[in-house]
Design a protein that fits this description.
Blueprint (H helix, E strand, L loop, with lengths): L13 H55 L2 E6 L2 E7 L4 E9 L2 E9 L13 E5 L8 E3 L16 E9 L8 E9 L36
Antiparallel strand pairs: 1-2, 2-3, 3-4, 4-5, 6-7, 7-8
Length: 216
């Protein structure tokens, strides 16, 4: 049945439909791009946060140990080892960098002897930046070789540039801290006795200063 003369037909023309579809498609693509960017940023921030949390925990423990009662056993630009007295024997702590990875180990021992195994035998806790500066300084000096007398070190500086890149995005953060080594005699108490040595867990000095810089 044909419409009566002079009565316009209801509906949209083909051109109007195509224009509406084009506009809707453009809005949908913009929304998807925004969502993808948000998801990518959230994933990057999560990686940075996870890396920072692990390394910050390690740095805080190192600073607490050194401020408490420790003797430095190895002092190299990328390898730090020290001994902490325990009720029986000592605890050997090691933090080192090898192949752009940060490693940490904690091992009970009968005496304060520097670990001899490779750095990679420890547990990997984070990736470091290829352009990272040397992680350790001793008495504000950057060593060019392992110190001959590490037990005389009075101050240890730590600086880690972490690499949290992934999924085509670049992200990094830098954490720094320093600690004055309380053990100035260069030796631990005989037998690891805590009767005359401060307990690292009981030290009430302020926590290490940690700075964070995020680059994306």
């Amino acid at each position: 049945m044909r419409p009566a003369a002079g009565c316009p037909e209801d509906g949209f023309t083909l051109v109007e439909v195509l224009v509406a579809m084009t506009v809707s498609l453009a809005v949908l693509l913009a929304t998807l791009q925004s969502f993808d960017l948000f998801t990518s940023n959230a994933a990057t921030q999560t990686r940075v946060t996870d890396a920072n949390d692990q390394v910050r925990s390690t740095m805080d423990r190192t600073v607490r140990d050194l401020r408490g009662a420790s003797v430095v056993l190895r002092a190299d630009d990328d390898d730090l080892a020290y001994a902490v007295p325990q009720a029986s024997g000592v605890r050997i702590e090691r933090i080192c960098v090898d192949s752009l990875k940060l490693y940490r180990s904690s091992t009970p021992a009968a005496s304060a002897v520097a670990p001899t195994g490779p750095c990679t035998s420890a547990t990997s806790i984070a990736k470091v930046s290829a352009a990272a500066v040397t992680p350790f300084t001793y008495d504000s000096v950057l060593p060019t070789a392992p110190l001959a007398s590490p037990a005389t070190v009075k101050n240890v500086g730590l600086r880690f540039s972490l690499d949290a890149s992934g999924a085509g995005r670049t992200a990094s953060s830098t954490l720094t801290a320093s600690a004055a080594v309380r053990s100035t005699a260069g030796t631990l108490p005989v037998g690891g006795s805590r009767g005359t040595w401060p307990d690292p867990e009981a030290v009430t000095e302020p926590p290490a200063m940690v700075t964070l810089a995020l680059v994306t």
